[in-house]
Amino acid sequence: MERPELPLPQLHAFVVLAEELHFGRAAARLGIAQPPLSQQIRRLEDKVGHALFSREPGRVTLTPAGRELLPAARRILAHLADALAAARAAGSGRVGHLRIGFAASLAPTVLPGLLRTFHERFPDVRLHIREMTTTPQLAALHDRSIDIGLMREPPTDDEPRLGFRTVLTEPFVAVLPRTHPLATRRTLRVAQLADSPFVLLPRHVGPHLHDRIIDLCTTAGFTPHVVQHAVEWQTVCALVEAGLGVSLAPASIRRIRLQGVTFRTIDPDAPHTRVAIAWRTDDRSPLVGNLLKAIDQDPPNSSRRTGCQGL
């Protein structure tokens, strides 16, 4: 059996009249004349099949049918108002779920300020944060399991369906055991690491960052002899501390505190590594748009961040 259509304007008129118990005041409150109000009430009574109001000279009262309908009518109108408010909030990106993948090295640097800024502006948006290296982030963006990626050294021209925006650049530093002969220098050149074994990130987890590090070495005149790989920068530093080799890394990993590791500035000026936010260019979600606006209005500043680990 087909359910009858809810007469929402009539329910609204009914509730207002039930509260005022006076056609003139109810009509004024609704912003209509009395005849249209009377018509609305009659139409609703026709649907119910019973009178909702007892009309006597100078006196309007609810009938038993009207008293029964009033609480339900109020609930329906309240639910509708809530639904409309929720729809408006979702349409403007003020509520909903936003899934963010991020490189672990950005957890104590770029990520906290970014999330804090967004959460302060949109406190009702639920954030789902996933730690992922660059390659899995790119795959997750394509298969729509995340909405935003925050990564190091994103691809430049081989991801046509994704947009990228640089949010931070930082120089590379040399990572040395404290017992290394170069550890006593304040600055050094990449070429001075040519004879040292290297600990690096595997290429498959972040090919562009890996290639940038290799390029630093080849530009300096040598191919690094890689003896160990580690996915996390914390692990890279631990292997360096153990004396297994040296590394080149983004400057923010200087915040890793290991007794047996030292970080040295590269001189002359070395190329910088890029941190970027990524999104699908066909994603029209207002949540994504609001996050990008938050970054524009409050760009990440490396001097305000702390800590580091991971790609």
TrEMBL record:
The answer to whether the entry has keyword Transcription is yes
Superkingdom of source = Bacteria
- What does the entry list under GO cellular component? protein-DNA complex
Which intervals hold domain HTH lysR-type? 6-63
- Specify whether Hydrolase is a keyword of the entry: no
Report keywords, A-Z: DNA-binding, Transcription, Transcription regulation
Provide any one GO MF term from the record.
Answer: DNA-binding transcription factor activity
Q: Name the InterPro entries on file.
A: LysR_HTH_N, LysR_subst-bd, WH-like_DNA-bd_sf, WH_DNA-bd_sf
Q: Which SUPFAM superfamilies match?
A: Periplasmic binding protein-like II, Winged helix' DNA-binding domain
Pfam families registered for this protein in UniProt = HTH_1, LysR_substrate
PANTHER family per record: HTH-TYPE TRANSCRIPTIONAL REGULATOR CYNR, TRANSCRIPTIONAL DUAL REGULATOR HCAR-RELATED
Give the family, as the similarity comment puts it.
Belongs to the LysR transcriptional regulatory family.
Q: Specify the protein name.
A: LysR family transcriptional regulator
